[in-house]
């Protein structure tokens, strides 16, 4: 099994700003405020967190093979 990746680059769908973020290890992150345009990002329908929707790496539970944050 691969080591989990704890960093993911989140890209804002409104302004395109990309920023590396550190994923929480004990919970999913449902909201993220873009540091450039201040848009509040929320997960897309069917996704469990902002990392699964806008990140280059999905959240830790998904990396581990689970379907969602539990």
Give a description of the structure:
The protein has about 70 residues and is α+β, with helices and mostly antiparallel strands. The protein has one domain. It has two helices and four strands, in the order ββββαα. It has helices spanning about 50-55, 60-65; strands spanning about 5-10, 20, 30-35, 40. The strands form two sheets. A two-stranded antiparallel sheet has the order 1-2. The protein has a two-stranded antiparallel ribbon with strand order 3-4. The longest helix is centred in the last third of the chain and has 5 residues, at about 50-55. It is globular and about 35 Å long.
Keyword list:
two-stranded antiparallel sheet, 70 residues, 2 helices, single chain, 4 strands, alpha+beta, globular, two-stranded antiparallel ribbon
Count structural domains.
1
SSE pattern:
EEEEHH
Q: What's the average pLDDT?
A: 90
Task: Specify the biggest β-sheet.
Answer: 2 strands, antiparallel
| Gap between N and C termini | 20 Å
Give the helix tally: 2
Proportion of residues in β-strands: 15-25%
Q: Could you outline the blueprint of secondary structure elements for this entry?
A:
Elements: E1 7-11, E2 18-22, E3 32-33, E4 40-41, H1 50-54, H2 60-63
Antiparallel strand pairs: 1-2, 3-4
């Amino acid at each position: 099994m691969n080591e989990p990746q704890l960093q993911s680059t989140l890209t804002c769908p409104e302004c395109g700003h990309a920023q590396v973020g550190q994923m929480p290890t004990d919970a999913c992150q449902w909201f993220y405020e873009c540091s450039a345009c201040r848009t509040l990002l929320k997960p897309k329908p069917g996704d469990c967190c902002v990392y699964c929707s806008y990140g280059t790496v999905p959240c830790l539970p998904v990396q581990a093979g689970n379907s969602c944050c539990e």
